[in-house]
Amino acid sequence: MENKVKIGLIGLGTVGSGVYKTLQDFDNVEITKIAVHNKNKKRNIENFNENILTEDGYEVVNDPQIKIVAELMGGCEPAFSLIKTAILNKKHIVTANKELLAKHGEELFQLAKENNVVILYEAAIAGGIPLIMPIKTILAGNKINKIKAIVNGTTNYILTKMDVQGASYEDVLREAQDLGYAETNPTGDVEGFDAAYKITTLATIAFGKRIKFENVYREGITKIRPQDMQAANEMGYKIKLIASAELDEEGRADVRVHPMLVPYNKALAHIDYVTNAVTLTGHPVGEITLAGPGAGEFPTASSVVGDILAIISEIGLTDYILPMMRCSHSENAQMVEISETMNKYYISITSKNNLGVIGRIGNACEKNNISLSSIVQKEVVKDRSADITVITELCKEKDMQNFIKALNEDDSIIEVNSLIRVQI
């Protein structure tokens, strides 16, 4: 027992339970204290010792015997205050908390540096998919300049079911909630917050420049229609919620989350249901895609436990453990405003079946510096309206928004149904 490294857990939900169960297979670790919200809650863990439970997180972070604190509760408070206290007490940190890192990572990493401890967070980006350690070690010789990722299983499940079933967003969301794939309040997932937290941290690590969460453009999936899914399929695309980060030629960062039409020849087009995937592009490696389970008890526990064991492997061997895994950048990235970005677009329009309506759309494009790749008008329906689908060439976002404004002011246009960017 004296040779075991003592661990404290904060949180014993789905991920915390997976971490506890997994660590039982290792004889160099002892979990000595676990902070939970309710000690009396029944745990689905065999032979569990309830004597190590506490409802006071500070009992964990202030315990002098505990060397590593694994924070698995989520949210910013009390997680932020507890981790700060643990760091000040010279404890190493492992966390799966993507929101905390996106909003308070800069302060926590600086504090860790001052107290000579490490913060590892492999599980905070894509569950069981190894990303952070490969980027900081095996891929360290690369200049990564582009990330395209599916990092939220709930939205990917919903979009996949909409695609397969031809069902509405509302119907599939209810089904996902019934199956436990979506929360009762799904806002964090379906409005893109979860993916935005993750791409903030991932881009910071990959680009070596700090990305501010408040500068990340975010758009959810709530406006996606079955008709958009069908149109995308007909044109050789799949609609996915993509977390994207790119460096332009001037080194500025364009970081955002929004739905995209992904071409069939891209790996992310074939990532379905709750699977996550991340495509990294850089030199000299080129383009690589890592895919796997992005959430769940044991996939996420795999990453947490890997981080814990990495720390344990160096405790007692050096006074400065895991130097490659520490935060080594202090420069804030210069960001590109969404209005200045260049994109291709899919636009769905319902118009009156008037003479010259296609020409009016073309004129609006010309006035706003937009070239069309294709324009298709479907058959006229009973109310004499027509469905028109447009795909543009590359154009500036602010010109596109002016184009949409012009369409909304045109008496021939009944409604602009959808505006979705297209992955290049």
Number of helices: 14
Shape designation = elongated
Name of the CATH first level of the largest domain: Alpha Beta
Strand content: 25-35%
Number of domains: 3
CATH architecture of the largest domain: 2-Layer Sandwich
Rg is 24 Å
* Terminus-to-terminus distance: 56 Å
Structural class: alpha/beta
Show unreliable segments: none
Helix percent band: 25-40%
Report on the biggest sheet.
11 strands, mixed
Tell me how many strands there are.
Answer: 17
Topology-level CATH name of the largest domain: Dihydrodipicolinate Reductase, domain 2
Mean pLDDT: 94
By CATH, the superfamily of the largest domain comes out as: Dihydrodipicolinate Reductase, domain 2
Plain-language structure description:
It is a single chain. With 424 residues, the protein is α/β, with parallel strands linked by helices. The chain has three domains: 153 residues, Rossmann fold, CATH 3.40.50; 162 residues, Dihydrodipicolinate Reductase, domain 2, CATH 3.30.360; 83 residues, ACT domain (Alpha-Beta Plaits, 2-Layer Sandwich), CATH 3.30.70. The protein contains 14 helices and 17 strands. The strands form two sheets. Strands 7, 8, 9, 10, 11, 12, 13, 14, 15, 16 and 17 form an eleven-stranded mixed β-sheet that branches. A six-stranded parallel β-sheet has the order 3-2-1-4-5-6, sandwiched between helices. Strand 1, helix 1 and strand 2 form a beta-alpha-beta unit. Helix 1 crosses helix 12. It is elongated. The protein starts with a strand and ends with a strand. 42% of the residues are buried.
